[in-house]
Amino acid sequence: NKELAPILKKYKLVFLGEQSVGKTSMITRFMYDSFDTNYQATVGIDFLSKTIYFQNKVVRLQLWDTAGQERFRSLIPSYIRDSQVAIIVYDITNALSFEQTIKWIDDVKSERGSNVLIILVGNKVDLESLREVTIEEGQKLAKKLNIPFIETSAKCGYNIKQLFARIGDSLPVID
Ligand code: GDP
Ligand code: MG
Known about the structure:
- Keywords: GTP-binding, Nucleotide-binding.
- GO terms for molecular function: GTP binding; GTPase activity.
- It contains six helices and six strands, in the order E-H-E-E-H-E-H-H-E-H-E-H.
- By secondary structure, the chain is an alpha/beta fold.
- Strands 2-3-1-4-5-6 form a six-stranded mixed β-sheet, with helices on both faces.
- Helix 2 (76-82) crosses helix 4.
- It is globular.
- The two termini are 18 Å apart.
- The protein binds guanosine-5'-diphosphate (GDP) and magnesium ion.
């Protein structure tokens, strides 16, 4: 009985990437299965948690949503240091946001070394006609860095569940 299963493990996930790539929208889609077209910039750091099932175990996920504004960037390293999973997001219609993923990945590695699961996410695939970053470019970078990669649309809900399933599959076996 899932209802009675004890919470066995807590994971902290931090969402990183340039402003307006869709970090908050991905979290909102995952948490509430909804999407808001009005842009509301995240202020500082937001926190949400959700209980899910990974590998048939109850797992508590803490999702840390970060903001891109310069004045909050100094807060981010401490959240990275605390997280077991870093989700690096870019917008497939914004080449600069893709180039900047390197910087975010470097930040994660300098805080946590290899003791972290990093996943690269290209969001907004519903905007195919405005695409500036090919799927092959995303795949190539992920392959070079040896990290998982997925393309999503928070707007359509495309691959959002799969993103979290992929994270679950990539975490070390929970015992
Ligand atoms: P954040 O700054 O990274 O948290 O980005 P937001 O989640 O606030 O999204 C920034 C803008 O992009 C908002 O206007 C969203 O509605 C829009 N957006 C986010 N995800 C998608 C998506 O998958 N497709 C489209 N078309 N727009 C998106
Ligand atoms: Mg946000």
